[in-house]
Amino acid sequence: MKMTGGQIVCESLLREGVEVIFGILGGAILPLYDTLPQFPKLRHVLVRHEQCAAHAADGYARATGRVGVCFATSGPGATNLVTGIANACLDSVPIVAITGQVARPFIGKDAFQEVDITGITLPITKHNYLVPEASALARTVKEAFYLARTGRPGPVLVDIPRDVFIEEAEFHYPDKVDLPGYKPILHGHPAQIKKAAKLINEAHRPVIIAGRGVVISGAYEKLRHLAEVAQIPVVTTLLGIGCFPESHALSFGMMGMHGMAYANMAINNADVLIAIGMRFDDRATAKVAGFAPNAHIIHIDIDPAEIGKNVRVDVPIVGDVKVVLEELNKLITPVERIDWLHQLDDWRKEHPSTVIKDSDGLLPQFVVRKIYEVTKGEATVVTGVGQHQMWAAQHYWYNRPNTLISSGGLGTMGFGLPASIGVKIGCPDATVWCIDGDGSFQMTMHELATMVQEKVAVKIAIIDNGFLGMPRQWQELLYAKRYVASRLTGPDYVKLAEAYGIPALKVKYKEEVMPAIERAMAEPGPFLIDFVVEPEENVYPMVPPGAAITEVIEEPKARPKVLSDSDTLKVSNI
Ligand SMILES: Cc1ncc(C[n+]2csc(CCOP(=O)(O)OP(=O)(O)O)c2C)c(N)n1
Asked: Between 530 and which of 48, 231, 418, 493 could a Cys-Cys bridge form, CB atoms 3.0 to 4.6 Å apart?
């Protein structure tokens, strides 16, 4: 059957099970938009900035486990996607970005709105394509989705010249892809799995570090089996949060720069570390030289490029986490580890890390905890980047995968609001809270309009400290309180929300917190709360940059009045 290029793209998207596209139109991609009404099963969500189309597709993909899709026109539309694509790349999120390009005769002529988007996105996509003719479209879309979701997932960009959308070609959707150079390894090497099992069975102080790979491969049950049978404590990376229930007795919280002190101590004292679907990011490991000095390290990851990249590994296992754990679990002997688990519990008591101190003022941690209480831990929390992101990770406890959705690798301020739109559209029955910083929110707050137009019932909590808080904290602790360019004003967020048609409240006092959250929950549509919190509250524990994972600054008993360069770092070795 003959179809136009635009029709082929839409039909191919339907064949891939796509239901939602986030995007903004423009000249080069108009012919594709013109065909959309012929495909009513494809819902198009008009965002207000293409970066947010990519973030919404990203949030949708993380929350649903499906591939997120975004559209943008050539030139500025395509370049606006770049941050969102890089964000998805660093967090291994499967998205397919379709961009319009200038028509073929204009390519290379610096035509109006021409940029080399395949060149620009080469290092931040898993793969990208410039499609030369309509007859190549179906195969290309098929490959793009296959590449995005298989192996280590990631973003794929398909750039399509305007005249290719108009050109006609025979439509044939391939059953399978033929990519000879691309064969993700799913099964771990049996000899390596045996070695790993021996190490685990002989270990005295083993620790599991679980990362986003566990979430991606859906290996929660296998992970839980391993932990329970071998009685191994589980710590997670930021993006691994929720892959192991945080209410479980073997859960020892998030590790790393703002992780639980006791999680870092567990790692430092481990004799065997089982790192599963994580990549030893520097925010997780802190100074590599001081990382787990006494441990044999087993590293299971689907991407061979991650093995040995950041830390030395004794037993590398390349494969899909779920498939490898299935095999590994067969070789694990049940054991009791009373001493090790007691020791960890003692450390947890000595360094509790999530106690919220008494304060007359409104503390951000208190706000997060109250959202946890009102939502009974059942919400999906989406964050921006900064202190509030860490408080959302520390003070809300997650028992299900994909319930904390946050920008880990790229650390993209502005991710929260658009990603929460994608999450809510992907999971309409979920209660979705966007816990955002006032700085992060101001980067993408125009997406309130998208929320209203598309009737997306996200609840928004702005942790309004009047600062770009995380760099301010660094300035306080590392730059003797020289607050250069970190003070931040903002609009009246209540009036702003109301101008968009969203009901909103400002909260300044502790007593107002619960009623406001309850009011937001009772509202059928979106709701915004501006929580005006203590401006100079810090995130603890904190491993200062350059320090080892156990060189932790814990919550000080009292804030020093004046900090000088020499006494800024009160680091204690734990
Ligand atoms: C796009 C982008 N620009 C700059 C930064 C550097 N940065 C990290 S956190 C932060 C401040 C975040 O402020 P806010 O959203 O208000 O959150 P808070 O730390 O106050 O909770 C900045 C500027 C970043 N991560 N992303």
From this structure: 493
Render the burial of 301-310: b for 16+ CB within 10 Å, e for the rest. Answer: bbbeebbeeb
SS3 227: helix
Q: Is 6 touching ligand 1 by the criterion CB < 6 Å?
A: no
Q: Which atom of ligand 1 is nearest to the CA of 442?
A: 15
Candidate of 52, 365, 385 to mutate for ligand 1, largest count of ligand atoms within 8 Å of Cβ = 385
Does residue 412's CB lie within 6 angstroms of at least one atom of ligand 1? yes
Whether 463 lines ligand 1, by a CB cut-off of 6 Å, is yes
Residue 364 contacts residue 387 (beta carbons within 8 Å): yes
Please tell me what DSSP assigns to residue 292: S
388 pocket-lining for ligand 1 (C-beta < 6 Å): yes
User: Residue 45 to residues 70, 221, 389, 402, 421: CA-CA distances in angstroms?
Assistant: 9, 35, 26, 22, 10
Q: 175 is written with which tokens? A: 């059953």
- The per-residue pLDDT for range 75-125, each reduced to its tens digit, is 999 999 999 999 999 999 999 999 999 999 999 999 999 999 999 999 999
Pairing of strands 527-532, 43-46: unpaired
Ligand 1 site, residue 86, Cβ cutoff 6 A? no
If we measure between CA atoms, which residue out of 333, 330, 345, 392 comes closest to residue 367?
392
Neighbours of 157 (CB within 10 A): 30
Kindly report, residue by residue over 281-311, the tens digit of the pLDDT.
Answer: 999 998 998 899 999 999 999 999 999 999 9
Phi/psi region, residue 242 (left: phi>0; alpha: psi -120 to 50; beta: rest), is left
- Whether 499 has a pLDDT exceeding 90, the answer reads yes
Contacts of 236 (CB under 8 A, 6+ apart): 209, 210, 211, 242, 243, 244, 253, 254, 255
Ligand 1 contact via 465 beta carbon (within 6 Å): yes
Output the CA 159–ligand 1 centroid distance in Å: 31
**CB 466 near ligand 1, within 6 Å:** no
Model-level pTM? 0.96
Does the CB atom of residue 411 touch ligand 1 within 6 A? Answer: yes
Task: State how far the alpha carbon of 10 is from the alpha carbons of 103, 157, 182, 303, in Å.
Answer: 19, 16, 26, 31
Neighbouring C-alpha atoms within 13 Å toward the C-beta of 373: 12
388, 389, 390, 413, best to mutate for ligand 1 pocket (most atoms within 8 Å of CB): 413
